[in-house]
Amino acid sequence: MSTWREEYQGDPEAERVMFERLAQDMMGVQLKTKKYSSAPTIQRAFHSKAIFAAIDAKLKFLEDLPADLCAGFVKPGQSYTTIVRFSNANGFGQADYKPDMRGVALRIQVSENEQHDLLATNFPVSHARNAEQFVAFAKATAGGILSKVAGLVCLLFKFGPSEVIRMLRNVTAARKRKVSSLALETYWSRGAIRWGETLAVRYLLRPAPDAPSAPEPSDKDPGYLSNEFARRLDRGDVHFELCIQPYVDPTKTPIEDTAIEWTTTASPPVKVADLMISKPGAGIAEAFTDARLIDELSFNPWNTTDEFRPLGNLNRARKAVYDASSAHRHIYRWRSELPLRNRVLGGAARAAFAVVNRYVEWHRLSLRLSLLNLDAFRHVLRNRNLIDTEIGEAPPAARPVPPTDAGEDVRQARTYDGSFNDLSQPKMGAIGSAFGRNLKPDFAPDLFDTPNPVTVARELLHRDTFIPARSLNILAAAWIQFQVHDWVNHARNPLGKDDVVVPLPKGMTWKNYVGGPAEDVMRIASNVAGREQGANRPPIYFGNNASQWWDGSEVYGPDSVKAGLLRDGPKLKLVDGHLPVDLKGFEVTGFNESWWLGLGALHTLFAREHNLLCDELRSRYRTWDDERIYQTARLIVSALIAKIHTVEWTPAILATRAIDVGLSSNWNGPPANDWLTKLGIWLIDAHALTGIPKTLPDHHGAPYSLTEDFVTVYRMHPLLPDDYCFYDHTTGTKIAERGFLDIQGAAADDCMRAFGLRNALYSFGIAHPGAITLHNFPRSLLALERDNEIIDLSVVDLVRTRRRGVPRYNDFRTGLHRPRIKSWEELTTSPEDVRLLKEIYGSIDRVDTVVGLFAEPAPAGFGFSDTAFRIFILMASRRLQSDRFLTVDFRPEIYSPFGMDWIASNSMTSVILRHCPDLVSVLPRTGSAFAPWRPIFPSSKGVPPERPS
């Protein structure tokens, strides 16, 4: 017997990428079918109408089964309970008398840990040679008459007339056959499968030789096949024979080309088992329930073991395509089609803005043009700057147990580790999932230390004189760290294991450990590798040790064990209104690394908010248990945090009217009274007509993740001042002066209790953070003690970015579709910085990303560069758009009606005032809580207060 083999189109990874595209196309077919069939919901792409289903059929292998056909569960005389579903092949669920193929799906239940799906149709050969032909033909022939005509024309250009004619003849012949009974049809597999270690086979299910005849097909009864099968079962069991056709050679029995029939002459069928379907013994109600359960099942030929895995291109595609189609049908995955006007006018608008932007920066345009330009930017970035770094399954692998439905608990509440946010891809965004990329990595080990990062940091980053950001207060600095702790966490090895070793400039030494010796190198704890890239090459992929969703994990913890330790019933543990402390004196909360008083204030504030919400929910929903109250309060707090960041913090740090309107629209939709903007959006991007929370989840072609480039633009350490003054919020009297090191680590809790939350918030509210610019990196972070290490964070920021393969600044800029800079003067307006940059880097293309982002002149009102802003445009929407709990499940049934109202009506200001009501007179009346507050002039000075400038 000849040896069979598979042949890949390119390689397994190239096929995987193609299959993911085909899966999206098949979801489009489902949408088109729904539209033209007027079905209320998404149906199966094919075989949508079940004709008959049985939950307890029996498949029994022959007693005298030859030894060379025995493999795995295939054993002589062995019998298995089998689920059977007969169906019409069309996706419209049409009447039985309509021209159509018929299909059968079997689920052979070997044990709880092993099941096998077999799928077949009543025509011996597929019309499609491979997966691409199959999906292209499905797309072309879905929808109405005009759609089909246009689709067939496209097929002619894609595959040529002869192939299109062949496919049409095949499908026409398969559909025009009159079927009198399902029990009298033979059903053939689509493509081959393995059968044990050495065999490749196609299989078929044929009626038993003694099957009784059936009356002529009806042309009036839409359910005549179902009725005939039921009458047949009244008279006795229905029997089929399961047969296999062994592989012979690549010409007569090809593995890859499913359009070539394995004839009975080339490979005579060999009977291996009998299938017996009996009349259901259950009552009518139970029988209907069983049928409904079977109809909900998702059959897939990859639900099997490796000994019986599907073979060939068409079969390899079925795992991804069928899974996507099933998820779409079960409302686990979504696809939204842009209207034709958006595809045409949106493309024209993007082309026009691309020309305009060569001459005029987007922020110099009028408000409406700026908003439309930002929408165009986002579209381009979504298409070109979302790179999936997870290792895909290539080639597909068999799975002995079909995927199970998510439990009710994960449907209604967030998991702690971020799993099951996307019900079709449970691990997406969960702890341990990969950081993605917005730009192709630039991995250059020979330039890791060029120029020396210590020199770069010392000459270009270190703070000489504090440069304030006068439009913000220090709460804005604390807030972004509060958020980053929720989003990203690169796990680190302990110092001493695979250290990153940075050579020091000549004559310089460094103590790497507390109490350690002075060395001529700086040692930095390495990140835990997520995946090796090859022999002798460090990894450029890392897993995120935090959930990547906007889920408040910095407050609630990353797992159920930690969350349980923080809870007291439905509430978070507080001691006299403050967070409890551990043995080291640190506040106990979800994540307390890099801790300081600013974080302590925000964690305390939102812990109090959670507990207040528990009381409010308890008073309104008296039948709820502790768990539901806790999880609902957790959802509300997490969504409120996301809203505050979207519509308050980001517009505060990017203080322009276009950003304010744009980000408010991200959450609330465009202004109701701005009909001209709404018209423009309707014309070019109808999906933006409502706020993202009113839309469906959309990952825009790449599984959701935060990215290494996103981490890079959030390196905002210059926001932190080195020196702090604390004041009484009622009198304005100074309480204390502290340096940053005096209010960080274990000292933070002592300060919180000494000053009180109100005084801490007030003191941060009236003070400015640092500007995100060169020469403004906090001195307090240049020799910071952490886990017995001594680290210079200014150097760490440079080293981490280089070693994670983030492109240098000029490549980073061009990768985000901005013009490449060619002169030093384009990078900075400071002659002294031009001199330093030239001296240190030599080439403008070697400027570090962090340095370039700090040096680049920002648009008016911006707290950081326009290049960094490109990542914000993309990721600010993505963090909302991908999240089920901030889109399709952002609804009263999940959050409660009270919770939805709470999120809609609250802001950072109202959160602060709820827990510190006597700060009402100092908070901005109309502005953001992240803008400077009104300072109180100390009455003890004996002079009248002056209006603050």
TrEMBL record:
GO MF annotations in UniProt: catalase activity; heme binding; metal ion binding; oxidoreductase activity, acting on single donors with incorporation of molecular oxygen, incorporation of two atoms of oxygen
InterPro entries, A to Z: A_dioxygenase (IPR034815), Catalase_core (IPR011614), Catalase_sf (IPR020835), Haem_peroxidase_animal (IPR019791), Haem_peroxidase_sf (IPR010255), Haem_peroxidase_sf_animal (IPR037120), Oxylipin_biosynth_metab (IPR050783)
Q: Which cofactor does it need?
A: Ca(2+)
Can you tell me where the transmembrane regions are?
none
Against Gene3D superfamilies, the record matches this protein to: Catalase core domain, Haem peroxidase domain superfamily, animal type
In its UniProt record, which GO terms are filed under biological process? defense response; fatty acid biosynthetic process; oxylipin biosynthetic process; response to oxidative stress
The alphabetical list of record keywords is: Dioxygenase, Fatty acid biosynthesis, Fatty acid metabolism, Heme, Iron, Lipid biosynthesis, Lipid metabolism, Metal-binding, Oxidoreductase, Oxylipin biosynthesis, Peroxidase, Plant defense
Q: Has keyword Electron transport?
A: no
Do you know which PROSITE patterns this protein is assigned to? Answer: PEROXIDASE_3
Q: Which residues form the Catalase core domain?
A: 42-140
What is the name of the protein in this document? Peroxidase
